[in-house]
Amino acid sequence: MTARLDKLLANLGYGSRQNVRAMIKDGRVTLADGSPLDEDAKAAHGDIRVDGEPLDPPAGLVLMLHKPEGYTCSTSDSGRIVYELLPGRFMHRNPIIAPVGRLDRDSTGLLLLTDDGKLAHRITSPKRHVPKTYEVTLARPLTGEEGAVFASGSLMLRSETTPLAPAELVATGPQTARITITEGRYHQVKRMFAAVGNHVERLHRAAIGGLALGDLPEGQWRGLSPDEIALVLGS
Ligand code: URA
């Protein structure tokens, strides 16, 4: 696929149209053999270099990030944001790269980000029931009743009008558990434990659909392969 060079670079966040035209004029944008490209050039994405480096990936990017505590998913919140953990250019891409669903500021673990709005919708759509698995650490010991309450499909959270879909709980210790939910309601896991008289002290998302965070170090990100994206959707 080819696109006008200045538009392509600007959309990838290399700078404004004016900035990237200056980069092109300065001979910083070349083919792999070093021959400079001009503004009107139409070259294949994979053949273009900026300062000798291959271009960032084209639109259709899907990333996984191991979100650390203390970062928010929204640029409108104050404090550190997850974009600070990605290359600076990624925040200036068009279409924008956005988180798929949210993790609270104090939650850690698997966060997906993509510039593919349709894919994001497929993953978060309540109709699809994509399971999300969290590891929780609780303030108080489990009573043993929680699993049945969460699995019942009749748990109603405060100020909600429809009960939660059944969720699966596996105790992993006296005050730790793995919980799998298929919805994405506001602060859902914390509110579920509050509803049974407990309090979530630590919340870590370990998997979305069939895709696990694995051993990706905290604060690091990587692109997903088509097979991994299929795993998320369970397709
Ligand atoms: N549920 C929560 O309460 N918080 C999260 O960050 C994710 C799910």
| CATH fold title of the largest domain | Alpha-Beta Plaits
Computed Rg = 22 Å
**Major sheet size, sense and barrel closure:** 9 strands, mixed
- The percent of residues in helical segments reads 10-25%
- The CATH homologous superfamily of the largest domain is called Pseudouridine synthase I, catalytic domain, N-terminal subdomain
Q: Please state the structural category.
A: alpha+beta
Total helical elements: 6
Bound molecules: uracil
Could you tell me how far the N terminus lies from the C terminus, measured between alpha carbons in angstroms?
A: 27 Å
- Calculate the mean pLDDT score and round it: 95
Overall geometry: elongated
Number of E-type strands: 12
Keywords:
6 helices; alpha+beta; binds uracil; 235 residues; Structural Genomics Hypothetical 15.5 Kd Protein In mrcA-pckA Intergenic Region, Chain A; 9-stranded mixed beta sheet; Alpha-Beta Plaits; 3-stranded antiparallel beta sheet; 3 domains
Explain what you see.
By secondary structure, the protein is an alpha+beta fold. The protein folds into three domains: 5-54, Roll (Structural Genomics Hypothetical 15.5 Kd Protein In mrcA-pckA Intergenic Region, Chain A); 62-126 and 211-233, Alpha-Beta Plaits, CATH 3.30.70.580; 132-208, 2-Layer Sandwich (Alpha-Beta Plaits), CATH 3.30.70. The chain has helices at residues 5-11, 17-25, 117-124, 146-151, 188-195, 226-233; strands at residues 29-31, 48-50, 53-54, 62-67, 98-99, 108-114, 132-138, 168-173, 176-181, 200-208, 211-212, 221-223. The strands form two sheets. Strands 4, 5, 6, 7, 8, 9, 10, 11 and 12 form a nine-stranded mixed beta sheet that branches. A three-stranded antiparallel beta sheet has the order 1-2-3. Helix 1 (5-11) crosses helix 2. It is elongated, with a radius of gyration of 22 Å. The two termini are 27 Å apart. Bound molecules: uracil. Uracil (URA) is lined by residues 103-104, 107, 187-190, 203.
